[in-house]
From TrEMBL:
<feature type="repeat" description="RCC1">
    <location>
        <begin position="104"/>
        <end position="156"/>
    </location>
</feature>
<dbReference type="InterPro" id="IPR051625">
    <property type="entry name" value="Signaling_Regulatory_Domain"/>
</dbReference>
<feature type="repeat" description="RCC1">
    <location>
        <begin position="52"/>
        <end position="103"/>
    </location>
</feature>
<keyword id="KW-0677">Repeat</keyword>
<dbReference type="Pfam" id="PF00415">
    <property type="entry name" value="RCC1"/>
</dbReference>
<protein>
    <submittedName>
        <fullName>Retinitis pigmentosa GTPase regulator</fullName>
    </submittedName>
</protein>
<dbReference type="InterPro" id="IPR000408">
    <property type="entry name" value="Reg_chr_condens"/>
</dbReference>
<dbReference type="InterPro" id="IPR009091">
    <property type="entry name" value="RCC1/BLIP-II"/>
</dbReference>
Length: 183
């Protein structure tokens, strides 16, 4: 069962579209009790919600929810492993999730058959794992995840002078290689 593509409205409701556990091919919406969603991302069958904390729901066959087990979550579930750091960015791939915290740490979880978690191996994980540093502490501006790949977009480091904002794109995929492109 595929979870829908949600959108946020100005009052913090999460609107869903498509077949899901909330509705069958009908627009639906829900709110988080005592919390306010600020960012969302969808994978093939899972959804991540950032409130400062990280909440996950959906299919969890490969551990893509980062809950330490592989049972599906049919309601937004707080990821205890993210409790000590505030989450600012999230991207959901087909069966994996990548997050970045305000402390500039990047964590990954889920399916890793092509090395898309960037951990240097191909083992799946059901808990968020800290990625080895890859960008010399440059601030991460955006994360993206595809079927079997992940990418991070960085901005300039503090103190750098530049007329055009320098940007790097780091991609994690097959053969555990990290490719970097400086624009």
């Amino acid at each position: 069962e595929i979870l829908p593509q949600p959108l946020l409205n100005e009052k913090g409701a999460i609107f869903t579209f498509g077949k899901s556990n909330f509705a069958d091919n009908v627009q639906s919406k829900f709110w988080l009790k005592n919390d306010h969603a600020v960012k969302i991302a969808c994978g093939e069958e899972h959804t991540a919600v950032i409130t400062g904390r990280l909440l996950m729901l959906g299919c969890n066959e490969w551990g893509q929810l980062g809950l330490g087990q592989q049972r599906a979550a049919f309601t937004p579930t707080f990821v205890k492993a993210s409790k000590s750091e505030r989450v600012k960015l999230v991207a959901c791939g087909r069966d994996h999730t990548i997050i970045c915290t305000c402390e500039r740490n990047v964590y990954v979880t889920g399916r890793n058959q092509k090395g898309q978690l960037g951990l240097g191996h191909r083992d799946d994980t059901t808990l968020f794992q800290l990625m080895p540093p890859f960008c010399d502490h440059a601030p991460i501006k955006m994360l993206s995840a595809g079927c079997s790949t992940s990418a991070a977009l960085t901005g300039k480091r503090r103190g750098e002078q530049c007329f055009l904002p320098p940007v790097s794109c780091i991609s994690f995929s097959l053969h555990h290689r990290v490719s970097s492109l400086r624009l």
